[in-house]
Backbone:
């Protein structure tokens, strides 16, 4: 690329270097490739660091997908895989290091599954149970900086094909489509507008149950289309009365109301949707193994 060639080059040899072929696939133009790593479990899963971020392929280069999750649009100069926990580390040019925690869910994805499934709830990795130290960063001053830790508890990855939309959001999308097609947008009636005002937004929930099938917790997650992550903090619901106006001026050593930690053992999670007060299952169940870390002298 220093000679003015900005095409991406990703090559593979299947005869120990005698001949090479391109697996660029549909990687866009000007995505200069700086680094490449291959998953140690599923060989078809590859990651490349490019001029404008990180891309992944599930099928050895036929199709490439840009990874989001908050990583900036920047040169990804180096990639490395932490094999014990399946983390992808990215070294950028001028924007620090970035970590994709537990990318193993990508091994369960396929182009066919993305096209046919309405929703996918991926199996979480082992949840370590311990007493989390509260963050005291706010009391250390601006001279001491640390990056945030991954969420505590059991972290779930959820994929929604279409997402859930309210009647108002669907109407706005229809109006936008009509403008783009130079047609008259649909005109809602007063009854439909009133129903929009009264509609309760649909919710997507992670429903946690114990080994006996009893309800433990309902954890809200995003209803937008695409991949999302949500963490269950391994706790029961708070026993405090419901407060419609919770405090926002918490001191650094204070925390929001929370329940007690669950016991170690096997739990299950299902992905459910609540529409008009009715619950329906979207995906799951998947198992959760809550394992005590037991770092204290006495358990």
Residues:
């Amino acid at each position: 690329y220093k000679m003015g060639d900005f095409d991406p080059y990703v090559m593979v040899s299947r005869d120990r270097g005698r001949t090479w072929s391109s697996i660029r696939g549909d990687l866009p133009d000007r995505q200069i490739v700086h680094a490449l790593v291959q998953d140690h479990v599923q060989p078809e899963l590859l990651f490349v660091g490019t001029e404008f971020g990180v891309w992944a392929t599930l099928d050895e280069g036929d199709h490439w997908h840009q990874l989001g999750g908050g990583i900036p649009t920047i040169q990804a100069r180096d990639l490395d895989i932490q094999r014990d926990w399946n983390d992808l580390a990215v070294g950028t040019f001028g924007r620090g290091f970035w970590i994709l925690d537990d990318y193993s869910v990508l091994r369960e994805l396929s182009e066919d599954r993305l096209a046919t499934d309405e929703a996918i709830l991926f199996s979480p990795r082992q949840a370590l149970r311990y007493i989390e130290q509260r963050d005291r960063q706010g009391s250390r001053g601006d001279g001491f900086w640390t990056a945030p830790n991954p969420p505590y508890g059991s972290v779930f990855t959820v994929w929604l094909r279409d997402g859930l939309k309210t009647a108002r959001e669907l109407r706005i999308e229809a109006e936008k489509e009509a403008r783009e097609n130079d047609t008259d947008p649909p005109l809602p009636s007063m009854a439909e507008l009133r129903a929009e005002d009264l509609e309760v937004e649909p919710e997507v929930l992670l429903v946690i149950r114990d080994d006996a099938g009893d309800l433990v917790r309902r954890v809200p997650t995003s209803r937008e289309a695409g991949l999302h992550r949500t963490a269950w903090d391994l706790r029961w619901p708070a026993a405090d009365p419901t407060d419609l106006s919770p405090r926002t001026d918490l001191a650094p050593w204070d925390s929001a109301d929370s329940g007690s930690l669950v016991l170690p053992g096997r739990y299950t999670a299902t992905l459910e949707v609540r529409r008009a007060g009715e619950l329906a299952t979207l995906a799951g169940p998947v198992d959760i193994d809550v394992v005590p870390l037991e770092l204290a002298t006495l358990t």
About this structure: The helical segments are 111-116, 167-180, 190-198. The longest helix spans residues 167-180. The chain has a mean pLDDT of 86. The first strand starts at residue 11 and ends at 12.
